[in-house]
């Protein structure tokens, strides 16, 4: 039982990332009808927003510290971060410590602008083109963005730690009645799961309870009719592209303590995220979220030693196996609209 609970937690952790990326992908496909293969690159850029924020907050200047001396008795030169100089030592150190959560403040405007530029500058020219053309151009864009990041930040992973308050692990088993140290799980993975629930809830609330969101949902269902009502639906869809990019960016920024960011991390998540979207149903936001968590949990269960002993290699193919079964039995996905991707 403890192994099952642990793997469930692992599945929710993986499913959180899958669901957030798939949610952005589905927003873009549902509003614009574009298959965006550059969405994984947006996740990667969000991760490097966290790296950039950490570097900005650690910018420092050299001062002489009279309390520290070299072997000749001269004051040593020490590096003092500007934030500690501006806000005081304790407050500055706290700001640096919380650089990963604070990176969301950088990721949101950066991703909104990047999403707007991508949609207006490139993707709008492919709305009426076949999906194959959309895949090729967005995949090419993803490679360009990946190489730019590689050139700027280098090819090696960059460790970006969580705040020290959440750097350790929690005895999760003791909280639910198991013996101490039976189920020990990292704090930040639980934080990431809760963060994903907040973001998903915010997106669904925005679409359901705001006038803007209701117009967008109406446009997703019948774009021409909404346009005939005098509403500039294209402008709203452009903003939704930016919101989808921001969701991917926030997901990447908060993920860096779990997986040190590197230039190819977007590609690592891209294929799986598209599988999640297809399984959940193209254009279905609830389907994307549900499939993300479902496939994350199934992938975690498939990695159990008992399962791998019975079915060697199942942990490597379980997601694709589920996708094949779903596509053979229900081509539009678990919660997809009738007629979408069924031709």
UniProtKB/TrEMBL annotation:
Coiled coil: none annotated. It is a multi-pass membrane protein. It is found in: Cell membrane. Its main location: membrane. The chain crosses the membrane at residues 16-35, 42-64, 95-114, 191-216, 236-257, 269-297, 309-328. GO terms for biological process: amino acid transport. GO terms for cellular component: plasma membrane. One of its GO terms (molecular function) is transmembrane transporter activity. Keywords: Amino-acid transport, Cell membrane, Membrane, Transmembrane, Transmembrane helix, Transport. It comes from the Bacteria. It holds the Pfam family BPD_transp_2. Belongs to the binding-protein-dependent transport system permease family. LivHM subfamily. This is Amino acid/amide ABC transporter membrane protein 1, HAAT family. It comes from Allgaiera indica.
């Amino acid at each position: 039982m403890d192994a099952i609970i642990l793997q469930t937690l692992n599945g929710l952790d993986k499913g959180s990332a899958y669901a957030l990326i798939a949610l952005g992908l589905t927003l873009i496909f549902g509003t614009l009808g574009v298959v965006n293969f550059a969405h994984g690159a947006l996740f990667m850029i969000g991760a490097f927003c966290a790296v950039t924020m950490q570097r900005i907050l650690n910018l420092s200047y050299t001062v002489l510290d009279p309390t520290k001396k070299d072997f000749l008795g001269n004051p040593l030169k020490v590096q003092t971060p500007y934030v500690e100089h501006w806000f005081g030592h304790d407050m500055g150190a706290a700001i640096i410590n919380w650089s990963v959560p604070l990176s969301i403040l950088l990721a949101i405007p950066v991703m909104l602008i990047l999403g707007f530029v991508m949609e207006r500058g490139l993707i709008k020219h492919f709305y009426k083109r076949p999906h194959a053309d959309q895949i090729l151009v967005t995949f090419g864009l993803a490679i360009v963005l990946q190489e730019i990041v590689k050139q700027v930040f280098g090819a090696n992973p960059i460790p970006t730690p969580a705040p020290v308050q959440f750097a350790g692990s929690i005895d999760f088993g003791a909280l639910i009645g198991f013996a101490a140290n039976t189920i020990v799980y990292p704090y930040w993975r639980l934080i990431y799961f809760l963060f994903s629930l907040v973001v998903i809830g915010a997106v669904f609330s925005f679409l359901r309870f705001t006038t803007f969101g209701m117009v967008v949902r109406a446009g997703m269902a019948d774009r021409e009719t909404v346009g005939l009502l005098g509403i500039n639906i294209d402008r709203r869809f452009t903003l939704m592209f930016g919101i989808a990019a921001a969701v991917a960016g926030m997901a990447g920024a908060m993920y860096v303590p779990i997986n040190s960011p590197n230039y190819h991390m977007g590609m690592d998540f891209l294929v799986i995220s598209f599988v999640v979207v297809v399984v959940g149903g193209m254009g279905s936001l609830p389907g994307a979220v549900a499939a993300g968590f479902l496939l994350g949990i199934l992938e975690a269960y498939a990695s159990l030693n008992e399962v791998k002993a019975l079915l060697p290699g199942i942990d490597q193919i379980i997601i694709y196996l589920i996708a094949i079964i779903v596509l053979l039995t229900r081509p539009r996905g678990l919660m997809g609209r009738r007629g979408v991707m069924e031709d």
